[in-house]
Amino acid sequence: MTTPTRRATIDRETAETRIHVELNVDGTGIADVHTGIGFYDHMLGAFARHGRFDLVLTCAGDLEVDAHHTMEDCALALGTAFDRALEDRAGLVRMGDATVPLDEALVQVALDLSGRPFAAIALDFVGEMMGEAPTQMVAHVLQSFSVGARLTLHVRQLAGANDHHIAEAAMKALGRALDAATRPDERIAGQVPSTKGTLSA
To answer: CA-CA distance, 8 to 154, in Å (whole number)?
Structure first.
């Protein structure tokens, strides 16, 4: 039995950013990302590749100000795309976790498609910037994604000294944990995985 393809398209426009997102949850990890911030493109590409999500994301943002609005709004739009694609979240595993190494770095992500946005992020960066991306924005991106996707997210750095490795391990772990949580569970086909009977109220 084949699973229906879960897709969403989001267009988000404010005075600060114009964002277009096309998401296929049931993809193979093909990403075409252009945010104007090279390091952020790399992180979103790693997330999609290791989560096996097909992703198109473009953003025209006010980078003449700084990277904040672009990184935050892209995370919100991407999270919203997942929220729409997963609809009522019926028949899904719902929870997922992954621990990903990248050389000396090791990052653990656990998440729950709970319908309740929450993020606890514990990452310890050394420097202030990674290319044109402020290191402090990595935690904010993860928190913004949890808001858009309406999920509970815990991210913990278990080891690491290189900022690039820490950030990339976090995004890869997010992709793998989300892939696990969004997989269909044939034992509960059509049922919302909650004792409440809903993940939207």
So the answer is: 25
The string of pLDDT tens digits covering residues 27-36 is: 999 999 999 9
pLDDT per position as a tens digit, 144-177: 999 999 999 999 999 999 999 999 999 999 999 9
Strand partners, 153: 111, 119
Among 168, 170, 175, 172, smallest CA distance to 157 is for 170
Q: Which residue has the tokens 């990184």?
A: 71
Rounded to whole angstroms, the Cα distance separating 169 from 187 reads 32
Residue with tokens 């990248």: 102
Residue spans of the domains in the chain: they are: 7-188
- Classify residue 37 by its DSSP letter: -
Q: DSSP assignment, residue 181?
A: H
Q: How far apart are CA 81 and CA 158, in angstroms?
A: 29
pLDDT tens digits, one per residue of 67-104? 999 999 999 999 999 999 999 998 999 999 999 999 99
**Distance (Å, whole) CA 149 – CA 159:** 27
Domain 7-188, architecture per CATH: 2-Layer Sandwich (3.30)
